[in-house]
């Protein structure tokens, strides 16, 4: 299938050069934003597309 649909805290930490606890905090914040928009979220993971839009401006 190629890339996974979700990005995990480990991957966020590696991509951004931050600690895992900070990565979990970022994921929580992004999931809260998605939840407010009516999306179902998964704890500890966030949509790869949404993550890339928020951090890189557009999905690559």
Overall average pLDDT: 91
**Total count of strands:** 2
Number of helices: 3
Order of the strands making up the biggest sheet: 1-2
Could you describe the largest sheet, including whether it forms a barrel?
2 strands, antiparallel
Any overview of this molecule?
It is a single chain. The chain is mainly alpha-helical. The chain has helices spanning 9-16, 20-36, 48-56; strands at residues 6-8, 45-47. It has a two-stranded antiparallel ribbon. Helix 1 (9-16) crosses helix 2 (20-36).
Main features:
mainly alpha, 3 helices, 57% helix, 10% strand
Topology, element by element:
Blueprint: E1 6-8, H1 9-16, H2 20-36, E2 45-47, H3 48-56
Antiparallel strand pairs: 1-2
Structure at a glance:
This protein is mostly helical. It has helices spanning 9-16, 20-36, 48-56; strands at residues 6-8, 45-47. The model has no long low-confidence stretch (mean pLDDT 91).
